[in-house]
Amino acid sequence: MKNILLENDIVLLRPIEIGDIEGISKAANDERIWEHMSVSLLDLASVESYVKNAIADREKGITYTFVVIEKKTNRIVGCTSFLDISLPHKRVEIGSTWYQPSVWRSAINTNCKFLLLQYGFEELQLNRIQIKTGHENIRSQQAIERIGAVKEGILRNHMIRKEGTIRHTVMYSIVAEEWEKVKAKFTQELLNP
């Protein structure tokens, strides 16, 4: 996967680059973002490391991180990624998604998820796209369920959070056979509320 640009009237998703450090640093500077995340981007050194690691992982084919640009302001408002990329098995995960609080409960996340799902199923011809979140992140679970992903179960004691507590992971997916129904939900309900 190279040079993926995904956009509509609301958002532009483009590959993360070194030149994005300042914009990401501004967007990421709110402690509320990192409550349920495995990283925290509250200082410049953390942002620099995050960007460099994302670029290195893209070059290895491990992950593909996008910056999320709000079209009306032309500024970075977050990041999202394709993770656990396995093109031979025709699957990816959408994750490591974060947004600055000013765009929470806006059309940004819904539009990003639609563009990523559409690219995955229609361009990459994937069989499965999974999305997972922590058991305590109710806001994220509700957002994932709202787009039509199927809850598959909970992976118990799955991860250790940055502060050392145990996280159970709630696993969701959308499979190729469900895409047309999910796409219709997006186009009829979610993208045009």
TrEMBL record:
Residues 11-176 form the N-acetyltransferase domain. Coiled coil: none annotated. This is GNAT family N-acetyltransferase.
